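Input record (Table S2, row 210):
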Amino acid sequence: MSLRSELPRGGGPSAGELRAGSAAAPPPVPVKIIVSGGFGVGKTTAIGALSDIEPLTTEAAMTTAAIGVDDPGQRYGKTTTTVAFDFGRVTISSSIVLFMFGTPGQDRFGFMWPDLLDGALGGLVLVDTSRIDDCFVALDYFEKVGLPFVVAVNQFEGRHNLGLEQVRRAVNVDGDVPVVAVDARDHESMKQLVLTLLDVLLRRAQAARA
Ligand SMILES: Nc1nc2c(ncn2[C@@H]2O[C@H](COP(=O)(O)OP(=O)(O)OP(=O)(O)O)[C@@H](O)[C@H]2O)c(=O)[nH]1
Ligand SMILES: [Mg+2]
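Output record (magnesium ion complex):
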C-alpha cells in the first residue's frame, strides 16, 4: 500500500490554483429527458438527429407477426420498431449535457415507463397529426406524474398536417405547455425543441423559488 506522501506530485491543481479558481471547470450538469409519443411518430429518428454520440437503439424488424398488432398507418417505409428504448446524448453548453431516453412505441411495453422516467426532468411528446390520439398515453402519463413537457408536432411532408392551434385544442394541454412544429430528422429543429423544453424547466424552477 502506498502512502499519500509517496505518490508523485504535480498532477493536480495546486492549492493556490484552486483558491484562484483556475482549476478545471466543473463537469456539466446532466439533464435527463424523455422522448415519447405514439407508435412510429419519429422518436428514434428524433434522438438520432439530436444525439452527438452514436445513439443506442433497440430496433427489431417488424415481421408479419406484427400485422394487425402494430399499425404503421401511412408510414409505408417503416420496417423496424423500438422494442426497449432509445438513448442519446447531446451537449447543450459547457454547463449542460442532455441525456435522452425514448419510450418504446407500443402500449404493451408500458411496464418500462416508470423505470425510464426515473430521474427525468422533462419530456418531449411527438405528435403525428394524422393520428393525434396516439400521443394521449404519453400526455396522460406525463401529466399524472407531473413531468413538464413540450408537445412537438412532427411535420411529415406530402401530408396534410393540422395547424398548431388545432393540435392544441385536440390535445387539450394547459395554456403554458408549448405546442411547436418540428422536423424530427433535422438536428437544428430538434435543438430548438430542446431549448424550448429547457426554458419550460427554467420557468418552473423560478416559479417554485418565488
Ligand atoms: N417524412 C418524414 N418521415 C419521418 C419523419 N420522422 C420519422 N420519419 C420516418 O418515419 C418512420 C418512423 O420513424 P421512427 O423514428 O422509427 O419512429 P418511432 O416513433 O421511433 O417508432 P417506434 O419506436 O416503432 O414507435 C421512419 O421510417 C422515419 O424515417 C419526418 O419528420 N418526416
Ligand atoms: Mg423507435
